[in-house]
């Protein structure tokens, strides 16, 4: 038997009961909270805690390779070394050591000091990209001093490399890191920061194909963001825990690197210009050059702001694609339009002669000048000698709108559909346009100017190639194409490109006979404007053009530049061989200041000669 | 000498003993998991501490509690002196001077002082019963206030907010259970309200204020102070009904929980054992606290009652504050979970406290 002794603690009285109630209710609050956290929100917290330690690491897909038609690599990926820094581990001492170790540019030092090391919160545990693309020797130096550089990691990652340097740079374009705007704008592409994205040229146009699909791998991280390299870590990983990336598709261009190089060499004496070579029967582009060019390797990597400024401030506009983005007065190369229109519509007979005195008068006191006094001219010799006076006369018969209709039929005035570099369509004016645009309205003078490719007519080099190609093929207006085929990473063709006839112009055979023989005369008749540049043993046909610019460059910094920008453009558009045309070549030399025959013709002939040399060699 | 009057029938309180063993056992299990992938001998250390703790428990329980009544002020004086000694020669860690190094051990005298203050208050209450039937006046509370107030200041200088708070809470718990005049209660409550802003301004350190601010608005700084909070709540919540299983708590395995063996063991437990395990653990604690209240009720004298109340309050507030803190109900303060947290001072304090309970419990029965 046990008996409790009497208690002497009457002082507390009923308070024990209150205490018990208080204690139980406090514990009930805790229990309630437990139920709330573990049962009501349990699933959410389970997800949150998983998210905590599981990190989905992306595996970037290798970007597709760009080849020329022979398989020469024009753009590929190479390993570059990027420096990553985890701020919580990267202390002042490591920083000082790093600065002493490498000859870093000030911008990188500032970036690390002010952006990386000042990171706050959870970001401090992340591995942050600090320096992109360091030289291999630096990577080795850093790797061998790793013990003194806690928190620094060298990660090999792919970067774009253009082994041919500036070759066909406007065509290929370049890549750059996605910008914040890109991330917003192209949501459907699911870009992530640090992704590469084509910024111009083929790299831009075929971004979807080149990009490939990113893969991922799950990693288990501890609270310090360090990887848990425990086999058991797999236990916590979701399924599937790894997905391999799908490499981007490879693009095989129609370009022939050999021809491209020949074109660039032929143009090399001039500062600024463009040239395009196209197969007349297929529309496949063999060479695509705009001068001055740029080195896509430079633009795809770290471009210092001073260098960027230099490039963008260059008056010769290296970033402008002068083949399809720049629009120019076509000058006399445009004369094929009124000539074809007049012959097709029988507005002029072959035996109709007019006298060129050196100028043309119309109205009361207007006169339009010719290059010199040509004497008696018919339609054929007017093309051959490029007589303006004859074409002034002719254009009055053809009329503004008919001329415009023919120009449009040939594809002038709208982009060709190549789609590179925000291709421009140029401009073909009509009566209505003048009526709306000018106070005085439309005047005959506008027609006269249009006929010789001046006034308000603007075309691109690519359009000219397409037009002269259509003449060469007697009416087949081919869609210019730059892609031969697209293959996946295993080599299967996923997209082939067959020649596309935009339309058959459907003129009478006599019209083609006339224009081809006239264009042939330009090169092969002694009075032709390109006669001096003819190639023995190869019949070339084409048309010269000297486009007056009269542009006032208000931004010009000094007189010399201002003067340069006032000089005439030199054109030559032609095809060869005349009997069985294979290629069309268009050359534009900007602000060269001499007649086309002295600048554009030799360049073109040079290109044509090279092309046939190569093709002869290949056939052998 | 040990049994001055020798007319008790000594009875061992098996419930109390089993509760202690159960909590210590679960605590050890949990520590094993919490320190599983840490290269630190915490687990073996804790086994030593449990042994030392149980020895202290046995010694404390064997001695008749009336002996403590006699030496209460002596123990209190030694306690206060030790607190002063800590301030002079103490070991500094994380910016506060809390530890004394004794041989291989690091002791935190402020923890153990909680026992001293319980004894001193019990002695005071026992020695001076209320003068009138209406209850104690404020004047009569000046003495115990000084007894608690002075060491409180010493502890806050270290600084150790958690322990200081506990000393105050034990003091108030005992005082409110005494028979007080209504007037005194009102004055006491209003003085707390007046004192709180003063404490905020002059006593609390910036980091302590930050913790309280983050508690009031956890979103204010999700990666800094608030981060600990969220990680602890993720841990508990992600346990769901039955937990992730022993050794499978990801929050603790990958070190998302701060001080998961001393301040956050409950999060580890709740993550791995879920609601079922958490309620079980809380059940053990509430049982222990209610047991000490019923001991206070049935104790032979006022001194024993106050001791049981004090020890009960100590257990109670530690559990409430620690668990409330890790569940995001209270601001983060360094208060341990009794018998569960890793650490010698805390283990020793609660074992001695439990020893006092046992000493009282075994001496309630008369010989037949």
What are the segments of chain A in which pLDDT stays under 50 over at least 5 consecutive residues? Answer: none
User: Share of helix among residues of chain B?
Assistant: 55-70%
Beta-strand percentage of chain B? under 5%
- The total of beta strands of chain A comes to 24
Helix count of chain B, per DSSP? 13
Query: In angstroms, what is the radius of gyration of chain B?
Result: 21 Å
- Rounded to an integer in angstroms, the radius of gyration calculated over CA atoms of chain A is 35 Å
Major beta sheet summary of chain B: 3 strands, antiparallel
> Segments of chain B where pLDDT lies below 50 for 5+ residues?
219-224
Distance between the termini of chain A: 123 Å
The helix/strand class of chain B is: mainly alpha
Q: Can you give me a brief rundown of this structure?
A:
Chain A is of the alpha+beta class and 620 residues long. Chain A contains 22 helices and 24 strands. In chain A, helix 13 (336-344) packs across helix 15.
Provide the descriptors you would attach to this structure in a database record.
heterodimer; A: 620 residues; alpha+beta; 5-stranded antiparallel sheet; B: 368 residues; mainly alpha; 13 helices; 4 strands
């Amino acid at each position: 038997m046990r008996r409790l002794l009497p208690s002497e603690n009457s002082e507390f009285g009923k308070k024990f009961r209150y205490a018990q109630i208080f204690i139980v209710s406090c514990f009930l609050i805790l229990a309630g909270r437990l139920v709330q956290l573990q049962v009501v929100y349990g699933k959410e917290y389970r997800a949150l805690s998983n998210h905590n330690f599981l990190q989905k690491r992306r595996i970037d897909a290798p970007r597709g390779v760009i080849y020329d038609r022979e398989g020469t690599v024009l753009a590929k990926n190479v390993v570059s070394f990027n420096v990553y820094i985890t701020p919580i581990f990267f202390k002042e001492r490591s920083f000082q050591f790093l600065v002493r170790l490498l000859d870093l540019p000030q911008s990188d030092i500032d970036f690390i000091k002010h952006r990386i090391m000042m990171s706050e919160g959870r970001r401090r545990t992340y591995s942050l990209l600090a320096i992109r693309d360091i030289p291999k020797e630096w990577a080795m130096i850093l790797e061998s001093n790793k013990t003194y550089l806690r928190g620094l990691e060298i990660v090999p990652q792919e970067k774009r490399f253009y082994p041919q340097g500036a070759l066909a740079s406007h065509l290929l374009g370049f890549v750059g890191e996605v910008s914040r705007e890109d991330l917003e704008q192209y949501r459907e592409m699911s870009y992530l920061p640090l992704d590469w994205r084509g910024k111009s040229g083929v790299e831009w146009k075929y971004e979807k194909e080149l990009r490939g699909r990113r893969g991922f791998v799950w990693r288990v991280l501890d609270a310090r963001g360090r990887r848990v390299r425990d086999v058991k870590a797999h236990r916590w990983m979701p399924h599937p825990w790894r997905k391999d990336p799908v490499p981007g598709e490879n693009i095989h261009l129609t370009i022939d690197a050999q021809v491209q190089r020949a074109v660039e060499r032929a143009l090399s004496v001039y500062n600024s210009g463009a040239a395009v070579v196209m197969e007349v029967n297929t529309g496949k582009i063999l060479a695509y050059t705009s001068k001055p060019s740029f080195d896509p390797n430079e633009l795809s990597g770290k471009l210092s702001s001073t260098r960027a400024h230099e490039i963008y401030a260059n008056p010769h506009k290296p970033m402008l694609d002068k083949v399809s983005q720049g629009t120019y007065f076509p000058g006399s190369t445009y004369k094929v339009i009124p000539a074809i229109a007049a012959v097709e519509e029988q507005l002029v007979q072959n035996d109709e002669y007019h006298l060129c005195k050196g100028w043309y008068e119309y109205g009361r006191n207007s006169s339009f000048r010719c290059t010199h006094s040509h004497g008696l001219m018919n339609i054929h010799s007017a093309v051959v000698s490029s007589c303006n006076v004859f074409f002034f006369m002719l254009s009055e018969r053809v009329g503004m709108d008919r001329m415009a209709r023919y120009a449009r039929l040939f594809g002038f005035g709208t982009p060709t559909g190549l789609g590179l570099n925000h291709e421009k369509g140029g401009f073909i004016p009509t009566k209505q346009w003048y009526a709306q645009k000018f106070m005085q309205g439309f005047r005959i003078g506008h027609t006269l100017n249009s006929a010789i490719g001046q006034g308000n007519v603007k075309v691109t080099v690519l359009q000219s190639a397409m037009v002269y190609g259509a003449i060469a093929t007697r009416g087949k207006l081919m869609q210019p194409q730059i892609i031969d085929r697209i293959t996946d990473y295993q080599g299967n063709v996923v997209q082939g490109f067959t020649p596309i006839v935009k339309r058959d112009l459907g003129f009478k055979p006599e019209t083609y006979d006339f224009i081809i023989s006239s264009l042939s005369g330009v090169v092969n008749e002694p009075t032709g404007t390109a006669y001096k540049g003819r190639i023995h043993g190869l019949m070339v046909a084409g048309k010269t053009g000297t486009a007056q610019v009269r542009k006032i460059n208000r931004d010009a910094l000094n007189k010399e530049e201002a003067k340069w920008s006032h000089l005439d453009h030199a054109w030559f558009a032609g095809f060869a061989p005349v009997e069985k045309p294979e290629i069309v070549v268009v050359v534009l030399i900007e602000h060269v200041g001499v007649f086309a025959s002295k600048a554009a013709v030799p360049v073109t002939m040079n290109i044509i000669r090279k092309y046939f040399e190569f093709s002869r060699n290949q056939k052998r | 000498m040990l049994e001055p009057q020798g007319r008790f029938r000594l009875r061992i309180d098996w419930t109390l003993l089993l509760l202690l063993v159960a909590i210590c056992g679960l605590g050890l299990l949990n520590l094993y998991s919490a320190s599983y992938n840490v290269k630190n001998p915490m687990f073996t250390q804790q086994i030593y501490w449990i042994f030392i703790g149980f020895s202290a428990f046995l010694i404390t329980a064997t001695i008749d509690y009336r002996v403590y009544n006699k030496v209460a002020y002596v123990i209190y004086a030694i306690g206060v002196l030790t607190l002063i000694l800590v301030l002079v020669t103490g070991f500094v860690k994380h910016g506060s001077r809390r530890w004394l190094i004794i041989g291989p051990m690091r002791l935190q005298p402020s923890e153990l002082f909680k026992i001293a203050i319980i004894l001193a208050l019990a002695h005071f209450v026992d020695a001076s019963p209320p003068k009138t039937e209406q209850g104690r006046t404020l004047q009569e509370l000046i003495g115990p206030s000084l007894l608690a107030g002075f060491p409180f200041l010493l502890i806050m200088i270290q600084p150790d907010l958690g322990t200081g708070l506990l000393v105050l809470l034990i003091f108030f718990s005992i005082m409110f259970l005494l028979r007080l005049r209504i007037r005194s209660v009102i004055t006491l409550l209003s003085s707390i309200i007046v004192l709180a802003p003063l404490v905020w301004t002059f006593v609390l350190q910036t980091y302590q204020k930050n913790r309280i601010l983050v508690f009031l608005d956890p979103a204010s700084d999700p990666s800094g102070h608030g981060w600990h909070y969220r990680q602890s709540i993720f841990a508990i919540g992600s346990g769901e009904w039955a937990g992730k299983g022993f050794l499978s708590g990801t929050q603790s395995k990958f070190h998302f929980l701060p001080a998961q063996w001393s301040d956050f063991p409950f999060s580890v437990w709740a993550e791995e054992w879920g609601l079922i395990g958490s309620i079980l653990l809380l059940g053990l604690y509430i049982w222990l606290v209610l047991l000490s209240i019923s001991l206070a009720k049935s104790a032979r004298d006022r001194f024993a009652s106050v001791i049981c109340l004090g020890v009960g309050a100590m257990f109670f507030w530690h559990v409430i504050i620690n668990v409330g803190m890790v569940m995001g109900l209270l601001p983060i303060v360094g208060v341990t979970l009794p018998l569960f947290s890793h650490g010698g001072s805390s283990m020793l304090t609660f074992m001695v406290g439990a020893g006092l309970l046992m000493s009282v419990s075994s001496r309630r029965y008369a010989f037949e």
